[in-house]
Amino acid sequence: MPMSAKQSLDTLTLVQRYWRAMIHPGAFCIDATAGRGHDTETLCRLVGREGKVLAFDIQPEAVQATRERLAKARLSAWVIEASHTEMADYAAPESVDAIVFNLGYLPRADHRIATRAETTLPAIDSGLALLKPGGMMTLCVYHGGDSGFDERDAVLAHVAALDAKRFTVLVSSFSNRPNYPPIAVLIIKEPRV
Ligand code: SAM
Predict the structure, then answer these.
(1) pLDDT of res. 6
(2) Quick one: which H or E segment has residue 98?
(3) Which comes out higher in pLDDT, residue 55 or 146?
(4) Mean per-residue pLDDT for 140-157?
(5) Which of 11-15, 58-62, 147-151 has the lowest mean pLDDT?
(6) Which among 163, 97, 87, 94 is positioned nearest to 136, based on CA atoms?
């Protein structure tokens, strides 16, 4: 899709372009960080009635906000109050088309309740095992300010070390913008040869 002259590209728009290119009606997707449900809603629209979406968040406020958003939009997903480290309890290996992470804290809530490298890295690995060959994972990595840099550094090092025969990893950052714009990570699980 060509860029509109009126709209500048941002990180979420970029990852959403990946979703739109690769998520088809009937797909099975996981939103690993439901938050207020914006991404869950987008995934539900992309997979349509035949598809399935699971969404995880550790905060009751986020789970409730996501359920309310979906109900208002007449969409449905399984919204689970649990850590994304538990996603393998809810999906079979190599059964998922796309998994999305939007790291950081819930806007307008306690910024101390945020994703952390100690749980994000195991959740990434768990999610990669759940992806179908050809499936996709995206991460929006927030950094600076209340998010700090520890999780960013750990995530970028982790994905850079993934086996290149099994995964393609693309990292996009807005090099000339101020104030630490989030970083977009796309991981594609290679189809079997
Ligand atoms: N995708 C969301 C949206 O569309 O509104 C925004 C997500 S927000 C930036 C990050 C969310 O991750 C917060 O709601 C936070 O509670 C959640 N979170 C933090 N640690 C988590 C964990 N271990 N498992 C699942 N969610 C977690």
Answers:
(1) 55
(2) strand 96-102
(3) 55
(4) 90
(5) 147-151
(6) 97
Mutate to test the pocket of ligand 1, among 38, 40, 53, 57 (most ligand atoms within 8 A of CB): 57
Cβ of 33 below 6 Å from ligand 1: yes
CA dihedral sign of residues 165, 43, 46, 97: positive
Taking residues 29-42, report their average pLDDT: 98
The CB of 56 under 6 Å from ligand 1? The reply is: yes
d(Cα 120, Cα 106) in Å, to the nearest integer? 15
Query: pTM above the 0.85 mark?
Result: yes
Residues 6 or more apart whose CB falls under 8 angstroms from that of 15 comprise 100, 138, 140, 184, 186
SS3 69: helix
Q: What's the rounded mean pLDDT across residues 109-116?
A: 87
Nearest CA residue ID for atom 23, ligand 1:
83
Nearest-CA residue for atom 26 of ligand 1: 57
Q: Is the CB of 35 under 6 A from ligand 1?
A: yes
Kindly state if the Cβ of 122 falls inside 6 Å of ligand 1. no
Residue of 30, 31, 33 best suited for mutating to test ligand 1, as the one with most atoms within 8 Å of CB: 33
